[in-house]
Amino acid sequence: MLTILVAAHDLRVTVPAFYLAGSQLPFATAALGIGAASWVLPAKCFRVLDNMLYTMYKRTCLFIFENLSGVTINYYGDIDEIRMKKESALLIGNHQSDVDWVLIDGLAARQSPEGGEHMVRFMLKDAIHFVPLFGWYIYQHGYVYVRRFGKYRKEPVERQLNYLASIGEPFWLSIFPEGTRFSKKRPDTIKKSEEICEKIGVPKMNNVLVPRAGGFSNALDGLTKAGALDAVYDVTIAYGQTRQEGRHGRAPNMFEFVCGNPKYQNIHIHVRRFAPSEIPNDIEERKKWLMDRFQEKDKMLDDFYSQGQLPDLRESDAPRISLCRSLLPALTFGAALVAPFFSERVRTAYVATIATSPLLIGWLHIRGCV
Fold first, then answer.
1. 3-state secondary structure of 218
2. Does residue 2 have a pLDDT over 50?
3. Under a CB-based contact definition with an 8 Å cutoff, are residues 346 and 126 in contact?
């Protein structure tokens, strides 16, 4: 009996991981097909098809991380105002886990009755472009790659910002200004952050790292100049699992998030909305503004660890994304994963897709996308 329980637990971890990773192959195959059709389709038709595909994958992820995991989600702050507005926004968030992006997707899914998953883009380190197939796709969907090391290249960033400004529909560009995840497993990273705090004369932070203003500032300036930015959302994420004994400062990874102790499987998301006009234009004042936001996040997380919640609770135990929206995409990708076992044409299409991966990475370099 014990062996069966252990095996069942292992499957609960392994199957979703394999499923999400494997789904990228049919996803990329469909994306290449839509991309090829864009040569003859009007740009608006291409964007509609691309948004539909992107939304399907995002809802498949939400099926795993919300419906399957059974997580409890609590929202705080200006969440009601954000739900009422379908607008283009920059999101700045604290970064603790490789699950953070899914929680942003979940926030977008509740942005309107029909959902807004297709709006979400991220500013990412340029190394992500080497991820086979997916690295190419997310760039063409409007993600922004930035270099963490070496000479900063402004042109690719400006090109993507101009693209987002030109698409004629609301978008969210999400940025994690810390540049890497905060984790007690990374004492050297935390020490460097504390040294910077000491150097610039601000209190040391216990739960976040010193934010970098470069990417945020470039995005804010570029999108504001293009008249394509309506708001800045300051998002603070707290994981209930970090309140377990011995887990302070160690947010769950994807596996722990899905299969963790149900008692601590709760998420807390605080959102504060700013108008772009509230952000200083002077670069030094803007750095201070961003630092102030992260000092506030640090204080909120201190309170979370002592009290179990963030300030200004608006919705406790929010309804998970409806299975009417997430189940069909999940089943579709599941069928697409099984299809090559029964169809030679599908196998051929998948092999061809895999073969294009190095070409697509090369294309990103030739086009100067990174």
1. helix
2. no
3. no
Buried/exposed 45-60: b ≥16 CB within 10 Å, e otherwise: ebbebbbebbbbbbbb
Collapsing DSSP to helix, strand or coil, 135 comes out as: helix
- The per-residue DSSP string of 224-285 comes to HHTT---EEEEEEEEEGGGGSTT-TT----HHHHHHS-GGG-EEEEEEEEE-GGGS-SSHHH
Q: pLDDT tens digits, residue range 111-152?
A: 877 889 999 999 999 999 999 999 999 999 999 999 876 667
Distance CA 309, CA 304 (A): 5
Q: pLDDT tens-digit profile of 248-276?
A: 888 988 888 888 777 888 999 999 999 99
Rounded Cα gap, residues 52 and 126, in angstroms = 26
- Cα separation, 32 vs 137, in Å, equals 9
pLDDT of residue 294: 98
For residues 285-314, one letter each, b for 16 or more C-beta atoms within 10 angstroms of the residue's C-beta and e for the rest, the string is: ebbebbbebbbbbbebbeebeeeebbeeeb
Structure tokens at 345: 């044409």
Q: In Å, how far are 12, 66, 75, 89, 112 from 317, measured between CA atoms?
A: 23, 12, 8, 25, 18
Average pLDDT over residues 194-216: 94
At which residue do the structure tokens 């290449």 appear?
32
Instruction: State residue 368's pLDDT score.
Output: 85
Q: Are 362 and 130 in contact (CB under 8 A)?
A: no
